[in-house]
Amino acid sequence: MADMDAFLGRLDPDMCVVTAAAGGERAGCLVGFASQCSLEPVRFVVWLSEVNRTYRVARSAQVLAVHLLTRQQRPLAELFGGETGDRVDKFRQVRWREGHGGAPVLEDAEAWFVGQVVRHADGGDHVGFVLDPVEWGEREPSGGPLLRLHDARTIHAGHPVD
């Protein structure tokens, strides 16, 4: 795997917060594996760790919300990346509203969309949720550069790593 590190170490993707609601529960986590995966129709995929509480809630959800953050919003990234919903109600600490299909939308996100889950894809220790965007928005004016992987490297995952 060391040889692959030479490739992977050069990547610096945008980070996003993914939120889900199902069965009376809400969850959200910081995600580094996400990308547009189709042009026509437009599709987006987010990859959730199977050990993460957000995955457990998302697998029953019909929609997920995906949020972009700016570098200045690192405290929000630390909350959703460094805390686990098994111990902390993250939504009590942020401004949010219910979006399409009940998806929790973070009101202070730089940009966001809600996507209908159209497919799951096994990716190893992560599962891909392929989304069909159905609602979206952005904050104005723009708050600056987006939060990227190198900005979030020091956030220690809040979920247990077995």
Which key features would you list for this structure?
7-stranded antiparallel beta sheet; NADH-dep_flavin_reductase; Flavin_Rdtase-like_dom; 162 residues; oxidoreductase; 16% helix; alpha+beta; oxidoreductase activity; Pnp Oxidase, Chain A; two-stranded antiparallel sheet
Please render the helix and strand layout as text.
Elements: H1 2-8, E1 16-22, E2 25-31, E3 34-38, E4 43-49, H2 53-58, E5 63-68, H3 74-82, E6 96-98, E7 104-106, E8 111-122, E9 126-138, H4 149-152
Antiparallel strand pairs: 1-2, 1-5, 3-4, 4-9, 5-8, 6-7, 8-9
Along the chain, the helix and strand elements come as HEEEEHEHEEEEH
Mean pLDDT: 91
> In percent terms, what proportion of residues is strand?
35-45%
Distance from first to last alpha carbon: 20 Å
List unreliable stretches of 5+ residues: none
**What is the CATH class designation?**
Mainly Beta
Strand order of the largest sheet: 2-1-5-8-9-4-3
**Overall 3D form:** globular
Question: Can you tell me the CATH superfamily?
Answer: Electron Transport, Fmn-binding Protein, Chain A
User: What's the β-strand tally?
Assistant: 9
Keywords: Oxidoreductase
Domain Flavin reductase like: 8-155
EC number: 1.5.1.-
GO molecular function: oxidoreductase activity
